[in-house]
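Contributing: when you submit paired examples, paste them exactly as shown. First protein:
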Amino acid sequence: MTAQPVPEVPAGTVQVRRDGPVAWLVLDRTDRRNALSPAMWAALPGLLEELDADPDVRVIGLRGAGGVFSAGADISEVFECLGEPGTGLPRGGLLTEAETALAAVHKPTVAALEGYCMGGAWMLAGACDLRIATASLRIGLTPARIGIVFPASGVEALVRLVGPGTASYLLLTGDTVSAADAQRWGMLTRVVAEEDFDRVLTEVVTGLAQRSQLSTQAHKHLVRLSAGAVPGTLGTDGTSEALFRQVLDGPDARIGQQAFLARRPPRFRWSGEEFWAARSGAARPGKEHRAPIVRGRWPRRAARS
């Protein structure tokens, strides 16, 4: 009998879909429940940076194709995903790079969670500002079931969000939990019935897009700093002071004040791209970003042992 060639498995894609001022990053690998390949993980930081610098984008959303968020990192390529540049240790690698890039986005971010959110996919959901889920969502942090260690950055973020006790339960047992439990523990912002999911999601992202970007981005910055701030010092760093200065010098506060007094919806103008570029010395919008697909490959011999 002649051996048949093994067909190549598609690596999947991360699509960008625009809906007015909302940009959706869609994890699209439905044949594997949107498990992320190394190429998909590596694509996320550049895409996020470009959307964050796009003045036409006011909200960035993340969701999976086909009614499932994601099964996490593709287990068949998990060592390539986790390998750390330089040491090769499976400390987080591409997963940590994507999580860090998402957490650093200045604009409001929303994770739309359906079906399953497993393993490393939770790092992406947890890095978003808001997490809207269907009541049937199942979440599982499952490294203990396959003998690997969850990325250190993901553990740190999880503990900040739910506390050490709940984080220990999730990581040590590897249990898959319900949306109701996840919401009770602080992992989810809102849980809605299946039939209401798209409507509620649209309402949330549309509302965010209509808010003052100065307000939302300044609040993101302050919330991000608050975990490590000495009491009484929050808001005194240089970036916070510059954002507070924008309340006086920028257009949004006056637009909001006038609209409130006139009893009409405000049309805010502050967008933030120039502000953050000036603060960071970033390149002008439109610059292309290319991330290597795999960094710090896990040694093949170690992967088989």
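Second protein:
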Amino acid sequence: MKLHQTLSLLLIVFTLTGCQANVKKSTQFDSTQNPAQKPVYSIYLAGPEVFLPDPIAAGVSKKAKIAELNSRYDWPFTLVGLYPMDNEIENFKPDFKTGVIIYKANIDLMQKANFVTANMIRFRGPSMDVGTAFEMGYMNGLNKPVFAYYDAKPFYGEHEKPGIYRDRVKKYYPISPENEDTDADGQSIENFEMADNLMMIGSLLSGSGEIADSFEQAIIQIADYIKANNN
């Protein structure tokens, strides 16, 4: 191959590589291609479902719902779920070392994911699960869109609205008999008419603070976001 032909080929490769980088930067998330040539976007499925009596079934159910929505709406892309228990932990033991391994495995999943949707259900108190809160913050720190929903039925047997955090504190935590704006220890109760701590609500997509009523609705919100940003 002559020198000018080699230089021309290198210029074409460089130009195409630069264009691909710009596309990835403008969309703010990466995509791969499946055999049908549809972009594939992965969603990290955060929430305290990992503590349910059958956590594996919870993940399988969520992934099945995503597959059903892909089929129902025939989007020009495919959504897939990444569930924390997708990780296979060798020599699992309930000890410190295993806990760190699980943490690192979940970090790897979040690094791969394009989005996160989190169940912000109250968990062991008036506020959401602390691990789920970390995962939302981590994804926000990666500039990956954060979505959320509130699904109480798997935990408490019936549906409920997220309501306002201040009201939940009064319902599920001891309150000062002298001052309803403080708890039994005299500490003030956050009151910004939000469903949970302001840092969590503020992390949701565009700071809109919208918590979907269901997992299905949250997935549809993600699909709508992709369509709006790919036009």
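If you have annotations for the second protein, write them as plain sentences, like these:
The chain has eight helices and five strands.
The mean pLDDT is 86.
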